[in-house]
Amino acid sequence: NHSRPALPKEIDVRSLRKSDNRFFWLTATGLPRDYILPAPAGAAQKVIPMEIEARITPGNTIVLKALAESFSLRLTPELVDFDKRLVVRVGGQVKYNNFVKPDLGVLLDELQQRGDRKRLPLAVINP
Predict the structure, then answer these.
(1) Contact predicate 25/106, CB 8 Å
(2) What is the pLDDT of residues 63-113, one digit of tens each?
(3) Left, alpha or beta for 42 (phi > 0: left; psi -120 to 50: alpha)?
């Protein structure tokens, strides 16, 4: 019987490709052109890794730091408390401040797309 480690509440990664944008419960989309490979044609500067940071605090707050245009957060009861208000901060600004409602449709969509029965989110938000 194989058990997987719990989902991390802190994510700190570097990405060089638009397609390398999904990490555990976080997806960052719309990464800046200067941070992705292949480098744009005629680019004089060297491409540097895109830093993507996310942290879930004990106070039911998610803090996101990245130059992405948007984020998608796949939430499970092990990550956040669905009975408490969730606050999401992006670059220091509050982008979400509400209760998260579990959604059976999200669970079924994730199961169909990824086939992972062990880590199904009960809700997805896009702050």
Answers:
(1) no
(2) 999 989 999 999 999 999 999 999 999 999 999 999 999 999 998 898 888
(3) left
- pLDDT score recorded for residue 7: 94
- Report the distance separating Cα 56 and Cα 63, nearest Å: 6
Quote the CA–CA distance of 60 and 117 in Å, as a whole number.
25
Closest CA to 125 of 91, 115, 90: 90
Instruction: Report the predicted TM-score, pTM, of the whole model to 2 decimal places.
Output: 0.87
Both tokens of 46, joined, read 């060297």
Paired tokens of 90? 């992006």
Residue closest to 12 by CA, chosen among 77, 46, 56: 56
Mind spelling out the 3-state secondary structure of 29-93?
ECCCHHHCCCCCCCCCCCCCCEEEEEEEECCCEEEEECCCCEEEEEECCCCCCCCCCEEEEECCE
